[in-house]
Amino acid sequence: METEAPAARFAIRRRRHARVPPGSPRAPATLLPVLIGLMAGLAHAFIHDGKSFAIEAALPQLELEENPFVLREEWWNGELKAGENKIMQHQLFKRNEYWFWAGGSIEACEVSIHVYNAEGTLVDAEAFQRGNVAGVRVVPDKTGSYYLRVAVEKSEENPVEWAVIYAYR
Amino acid sequence: MIPNSPFRIVRFLSVLAIASGLAAVPRAGYAQSGAPQKIDIGNLPADVVDDVIIPIPQEIFASLDKLGNQNWKSHLLRKDVDLDANRSRTAFLFGLVISEGFIAVQAEDRDEVKRAGREVLRLAGALGVKSEVEGHALAIIDGANAGEWSGVRRELDRTRQTVIDTMEKQRDKEFADLVSIGGWLGGTRALAALVSDRYSADAAELLHQPDLLDQISRRFAGLSDRARIGAIFERVTQTLDALKPLMRTNGDGNVPAEAVGKIESLTTDLTNAVYGN
Fold first, then answer.
1. Among A34, B64, B103, B212, fewest CB within 10 Å belongs to which?
2. Does B251 touch chain A (CB under 8 A)?
3. Which ipTM score applies to this complex?
């Protein structure tokens, strides 16, 4: 698993969207490479664009006025090229309801996520796919192992860093 | 007005997306038409089972609570932690204490939640991750004082994840695994005890975790000798092996009452052995 620093609830920071505020002091040119290296290291340690996109997609379910879904802190991630998929095994519990969200790090890509039961049958209760984010809701009828299939359907750049987060209630 | 914090920006974008009809609205027909209706579970690559996220106790407790009120208070351990120099045991205890925190939240027992918060801090100090955990531990204690149970649950999961992430960053991934396994053990002990109290097939089904248990066993077996110092870890192996046939459903699709009783006994014995008191 990649690591992430403790942060405020659902805080999202993107390296691509980082901007220097107007009027900020400029670093001396000699220090610039050092600062860039340091910032790149920090960005790599703390930020995952795919996860940020996934969290954005999750917000409506996490902020429901009544009975919101509870986001788990642990998450999956990896790299896939267009046309590839990855399957993860995961234990689900009957009577709970789950949402899984997948996010791709590149906006010009298409990801999908679906859930299968122990027999390999699709069990999505509902699903959506919107460019580089996708989500699926599952209401398991049995307690046991289920299989998440995340795929990069299309992408202009390869590979795509993907992340999958989930929440339950 | 343009929002100025990252969180506000996300909210702002979400609202815009909803307003423009682009939000995460389920479109089952679209997605399901592109998804394979069936996948071949029998031929999955090995990394499928190497990438398992162990559920936190709260996930399981949430399901159990839907079957009616449970007597959570009666299954709080109320144990003090005796620390020693064995870092592996400390990591395992950390997971156990986090699970105790979840049980105490279920019981809405402020004193026990605060005790868990304090123990979390002490154990984090022994593991060398105190500064990373301090804020979470204080939030747990403050949340308990305020009775904000959902916030405390969130902080418990964050605490667990922060310790795991920090240990992985420090190249202590094996100790991070012990935190996860300890948490699973603590949650399973409480679950089995509650199901034993008032057996029902529905509740017992939550103990049907054969694949997860296999994964936990493999993860534990894969730890180096350095991470399994002490006699206690031989007991972990023995207990995981003994649990395997019990955490399966029988021919009727149930985890029988007798198996639940044995799961409770095995997990309680191991928990007591890890606490050492």
1. A34
2. no
3. 0.86
